[in-house]
Amino acid sequence: MLLGLHADYVPDGRVLTEVIEPGALPRAVTSDTTLITDLGQLYKQLDAPVGSFGLDTLQASTVALASTSPGDATYKKLEGDLASLGIERDGVAGAIHAMLLGATFDGTPVNRWAAQWLLQAGGAILRQAGVLAK
Predict the structure, then answer these.
(1) Residues 99, 35, 49, CA angle at the centre, nearest 5°?
(2) Whose C-alpha in 23, 79, 108, 122 is 20 to 30 A from the C-alpha of 87?
(3) The pLDDT value given to residue 100
(4) Are the C-beta atoms of 85 and 121 separated by less than 8 Å?
(5) Cα(6)–Cα(74) distance, rounded to whole angstroms?
(6) Residues of the chain falling short of pLDDT 70
(7) Are 60 and 84 contacting, i.e. CB atoms less than 8 angstroms apart?
(8) Half-sphere exposure of 51 toward its Cβ, with a 13 Å CA cutoff?
(9) What's residue 4's pLDDT?
(10) Is 4 left (phi over 0), alpha (psi -120 to 50) or beta?
(11) 3-class SS of residue 69
């Protein structure tokens, strides 16, 4: 806030609760470190280019491109499924990211019910991406 300026940078990542001493973490994070860690690990699998989602959707897209089905039916179906799944992933990953940032930087306690829902929804998205990759 020096000179009245403010940073509008939004970090694209998470606190590595697995390697940071608990005493150095904000209270909103240490109130449920296991849940925060689970959310962070899921976020990585959903958002990282080499996470499960990224690798499985790349495989599915490769299969779609290699298809020789009449009228490109396989390609169209897989790419449509991938687009829909990507939209779902964006929503869940965005909500997880916001929750993690809130706990880390704003001291906002994690809503356990919402976090559990996000863990279930994110897990389902990863499973769906895995099915598309086969």
Answers:
(1) 65
(2) 108
(3) 94
(4) no
(5) 49
(6) 1-10
(7) no
(8) 19
(9) 62
(10) left
(11) coil
Q: Which residue has the tokens 């962070």?
A: 40
What is the rounded distance in angstroms from the CA atom of residue 31 to the CA atom of residue 4? 33
User: What pLDDT shows up at residue 9?
Assistant: 65
Pull the structure tokens for residue 51: 């996470």
The pLDDT score that the predictor gives to residue 16 is: 77
3-class state of residue 92 by DSSP: helix
Chain centre to alpha carbon of residue 44: 6
Q: What is the pLDDT of residue 1?
A: 45
The C-alpha R_g of the chain, in whole angstroms, comes to: 18
Q: pLDDT by residue (tens digit) across 40-71?
A: 999 999 999 999 999 999 999 999 999 888 98
**Residue for token pair 């150095």:** 24
